[in-house]
TrEMBL record:
Residues 1-27 form the signal peptide. Keywords: Signal. It comes from the Bacteria. InterPro entries: Cyt_c-like_dom_sf (IPR036909). It comes from Yersinia intermedia. This is Cytochrome c552. The keyword Signal applies.
Amino acid sequence: MAIRLFNTNALRIAFTLVLFISPLCHTKGNTPEQNYILKCSGCHDLDGSGSVQGGIPPLPGYLGAFVNDADGRLYLMHVPGIVASGLDDQQIAQLMNFLNQKWGDAQQGAPFTEAEVKQLRAIPMTDVVKLRRQIVQRFLREGIATGDYPWP
């Protein structure tokens, strides 16, 4: 005689809930810091240092220049990590404001808003590297440091 150790219907329901609810918990409930760790630190590292060899720019000491510049803000909304992050406009705004507080210059420039992020992301971008080069050339003429990066 077989002994039933669990209710198979209850197990199916529990399994289904885990499958469908779990992904929602991993994105919507994250803090901006958690989103940085999950979505950005794989390339920029936990300390924001990036990788010259990998073509990943450092954030500390350099992010503020891009946040405080209209073209820089456009560029930031089109970097591969933001484009492919799966975050919504509000989460991206919160993430960028967190990063600016941590490694930028929060005293200058306006915080990102959900509406601004939506507007900037809607602008077509065919060559983000070209845009970065144009911004960096202007920054260098203005004496603004941009960090060690192989694609200036």
